[in-house]
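**Archive record**
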Amino acid sequence: MGLIVQKFGGSSVADAERVMNVARIVTDTYKQGNDVVVVVSAQGDTTDDLIEKANEINPKAAKREMDQLLAAGEQISISLLAMAIESLGYPVISLLGWQAGFNTNSIYGSARIKNIKPNRLQAEIAKRNIVVVAGFQGINRYDDLTTLGRGGSDTSAVAIAAALKADKCQIFTDVEGVYTADPRKVENAKKLKEITYDEMLELATLGAQVLNNRSVEMAKKYGVELEVLSSLNPIPGTIVKEVAKMEKMLIRGVTKDKDVALVSILNLQDTPGIAFKIFSKLSSKNINVDIILQSFGRDGTKDIVFTVSKDNGPVAVELLEGMLDDCKIVCNTEVAKVSIVGAGMESHPGTASKMFEALYESNINIQMISTSEIKISVIIDAESADRAVAAVHKAFIPND
């Protein structure tokens, strides 16, 4: 018997029937003698609905006020789930993020967790209460509510598991685990029994939506064992941990990410320190840059091409046009990033050429390439993304 942290996403608590289903999963775990802390997201499309309501009033609302609004979604979920657990005859208490001890910085909309003071959590667990915690939120030094950004409930769950030294952190979703590709889009995508933190982190960062990348990063840092499993189908999921028994599979997953903009700075004067000036300017506005390609200088000029998130593409262009003269800056938001991930690829020559061959045979042009020890990413036209994922998956992962 141990301490189990369980996290349920919005689709798992979308309506009354699913809330009761989650209550039964939680109480079954509790009946086995475990202490249970549950982290819950807002129901279904609640967050999107709240954003829509805000836009009807003020499309440029302050991020602080948006956090005040969006935090309400999880408050509804935890109350309803606590009521459901109570109806089944089990002791339960619901806590908002600040009541659970979440202290964050003051970056509204994408706050980072500074620390968790788990005193209240520990006290409620000692009473043998099931504790239901609002994910995605905390409080800053000004006593303002903050939200953790997209996928923040995953991060909340892992942070609690780390703070309480839980035996396991289970992430319940609407899929049955981590797959080699999106099973809804790619025929014969395979579920993985195990995957390493590094591989999962790359997959999450590169577009796989099953886990938030910040949660995986935190799980690796604090040694929290994760299990990704279905809230609708009670079968074993995928274990994410430091040392996994690797299957005989070179590539562990193929992902796509359409939240990409390609920014090109053309005919830039080739002067010392210009790259530093460009990317420090972007960094000062919290614009994260992914792939960077710089051409060889010619006739005193060079080209620099890089990728950012789609929303940040026009922002980056506006910033750079204000500081760069005598060059052309363009932004293409009709691109996508397709990636393969696998810890074994560095010891297998020909991995890149096999990926490029699959894209060539599907008549898909590559615009940029980025590699690391465990991943290869390419930038292609967005309209070809699904076709590219299917072709690359077929090339690397046997259809058996």
About this structure: The chain has a mean pLDDT of 92. The first helix runs from residue 16 to 31. The radius of gyration is 23 Å. The CA atoms of residues 123 and 353 lie 57 Å apart.
